[in-house]
Structure formats: structure tokens, C-alpha cells
Amino acid sequence: MSRIASCSCGQLKLTMEGDPTEVTVCHCFECQKSTGSVFGVSAYWPKSACVSIDGQVKSWRRSSDSGRWVESYFCPICGSTMYWYAEFAPDEIGVAPGNFADPSFPAPTSAVWDSCRHPWVKLPAEWPEEAKRGGLPE
Ligand SMILES: [Zn+2]
Ligand SMILES: [Zn+2]
Predict the structure, then answer these.
(1) How far is the CA of 96 from the centre of ligand 1 (A)?
(2) Domain ranges of the chain
């Protein structure tokens, strides 16, 4: 099964094959700033699951809150950040689930950087406590 992500203006498209291996919430301030929302959500696949990337793209490499690099790729027209590569996961590609515009997209199962979480953001009660503070370290 293929899933197609697109940016706000639609010129940048990315096709992923199959389901992500992990979907995680990140409360860190860098994710808050880059998304403009109060947390980020990342869907990770092996790089080989990325079938195509079409359109103009720009990238920006930053240091994460834990000091490792994350390189984000975004549409130079509308600014949507679509996908990224991270030092902590060298064989993976992270994609923003919102760019698939698909409410049936697999839900996150873990969260990191709880220390930056806005207190009104409540993770699902059925998640184990460690999942709310675990997952991939950024
Ligand atoms: Zn765009
Ligand atoms: Zn983050």
C-alpha cells in the first residue's frame, strides 16, 4: 500500500510504501518551533520505503535539544516541512503524518521530551506510562 504526502501548496509530493515502523510524538521546543504547533508527530520508515520525492525542496540542518543533527526538508514555496533525516536514526526517514491528510493514518504509540509538554496536552490514558516518556530519543 502506498501513501502520498503533499505540502500545503501541493507542488512537493512524497510517496511511501507500507506502514511506518514507528509513529511518535515529540514535545521538544525545536519541534514546537518547526511545526508551529505545541508538539510534533513523526512517522519513521526505513529509507528504502520512500518510493519517490517530486517537486522543489529545500533543507535545513539543525541541532536537536540533545545535540544531534536533524535535517528537515521543506517546500520552498509554502514552507511545509515534509520529511527529515536524523543522526540518531541513520537508516530511516521521518515524515510528518499531517502531510498525508489521512485520519486513518497509524496513530503514535510513544512520546519523548515530556519535560517540554504543554500541560493541557494529554496522551491517551491507555498508553503505558513509559510510552509517554520513551520512544526514539531525538
Ligand atoms: Zn508547498
Ligand atoms: Zn522534537
Answers:
(1) 14
(2) 2-111
